[in-house]
Write a structure and sequence with these properties.
The protein is mostly beta strands. It folds into two domains: about 80 residues, Immunoglobulin-like (Sandwich), CATH 2.60.40; about 190 residues, Sandwich (Jelly Rolls), CATH 2.60.120.200. The strands form four sheets. Strands 8, 10, 15, 16, 17, 18, 20 and 22 form an eight-stranded antiparallel beta sheet that branches. It has a seven-stranded antiparallel beta sheet with strand order 14-13-12-11-19-9-21, with no helix packed on it. Strands 4-3-6-7 form a four-stranded antiparallel beta sheet, with no helix packed on it. The N terminus is likely disordered. One 2-acetamido-2-deoxy-beta-D-glucopyranose binds next to loops.
């Protein structure tokens, strides 16, 4: 046994030319990770283990001709639509060899599904993973929730490293919503409904600080907060838990139990008709993310159900 280890150690320590060369590998990644209809999408073919000159051949399954061939590792789709779905192959060639990789471009269409949060938890949540690159001067968040909790709970929590309560949609008690921008809260009173799901939209614009709130498609009186503020990035966005730190600091006593669906966010304001369209999952404006192609990661016990 000792002899074998010694032998392996000597092999591992052998210098220079005898050491095996790192194998050339390729990997495709998409940016943003979930494409939005009529927005730009980039597929990048990343090569490791080779620093020589490379040629990239892009092909798509079912397409008789190559999409692109040349030194460019990026395949740019200026305006993504359903015809772009499918399996892409990138073949990278250099003097050292060749690496081939594939990637399937899919849609996470959750339109007939809801996220079920089965029980109180300190960990279970859904992370939303959009590409948000620029700070926000305006935003709108809409979602539907269904719960019979009477204690406080968090629906939508947007944290940055600097501010864990950058954007928060919270229900302190039945009949009340709390909206937070940059750690400043605002409260809206709504009817107490038991046995019915509730659809809410919440918008904010920096130039006036005006906050819009819609309950089951109806506009509530506008109020305001945080005039002149800017919502920061990068963000960690969580459904079903309240972040007290970037990506964590959850409190069981504020965890959500029940169903969440039709989650949308825009980097702009919204009209009354836009709110109603979002309620029916047919948004008028292209969102940053939405239920028709939802970029998400389930952490712990949360289920996606019809
Ligand atoms: C989808 O995009 C392609 C260009 O990449 C375009 O030719 C086609 O008309 C578009 N289809 C729809 C339905 O918008
Ligand atoms: C935010 O909204 C205001 C008022 O609607 C508008 O004037 C401004 O251009 C918007 N900002 C961005 C970055 O879209």
């Amino acid at each position: 046994m000792g002899g074998l280890w010694l032998c392996l150690l000597i092999l591992a320590a052998l210098p220079g030319p005898a050491a095996p060369r790192e194998t050339m590998r390729a990997k495709i990644w998409a940016q943003p990770p979930a494409p939005t209809e009529y927005h730009q999408l980039m597929l990048s073919c990343e090569v490791t283990g080779d620093r020589g000159p490379q040629e990239f051949l892009w092909e798509k399954e079912g397409s008789p001709v190559p999409l692109q061939r040349g030194p460019d590792s990026i395949l740019l789709i200026p305006s993504f639509n359903n015809t772009h779905l499918g399996t892409y192959t990138c073949t990278a060639t250099s003097t050292q060899g060749r690496a081939v990789t594939t990637y399937t471009l899919r849609i996470n269409d959750l339109r007939s599904s809801v996220l079920v949060f089965p029980q109180e938890s300190q960990t279970a949540h859904v992370q939303v993973t959009p590409e948000l690159e620029l700070p926000l001067d305006n935003f709108t968040v809409c979602l539907r929730s269904f719960s019979d909790l009477t204690r406080p709970y968090s629906l939508f929590s947007y944290a940055t490293k600097k501010q864990s309560n950058e954007i928060l949609l919270f229900k302190p008690k039945p009949g009340q919503y709390e909206l937070v921008v940059g750690n400043k809260p605002l409260f809206f009173t709504v009817p107490i409904s038991l046995g019915e799901s509730e659809h809410v939209c919440f918008s904010w614009e920096s130039s006036t600080g005006i906050v819009g709130f819609w309950f089951n498609g109806k506009p509530w009186p506008r109020k305001g907060l945080q005039k002149g503020y800017t919502v920061g990035v990068p963000a960690h966005i969580v459904l079903g838990q309240d972040q007290d730190s970037f990506g964590g600091g959850f409190d069981t006593q504020q965890s959500f139990v029940g169903e969440i669906s039709s989650v949308y966010m825009w980097d702009m304001g919204i009209s009354n008709s836009g709110v109603v369209s979002a309620m029916y999952d047919t948004p008028e404006q292209t969102p940053v993310f939405g239920w028709r192609n939802f970029p998400y990661k389930i952490v712990g016990e949360v289920y996606l159900k019809p």
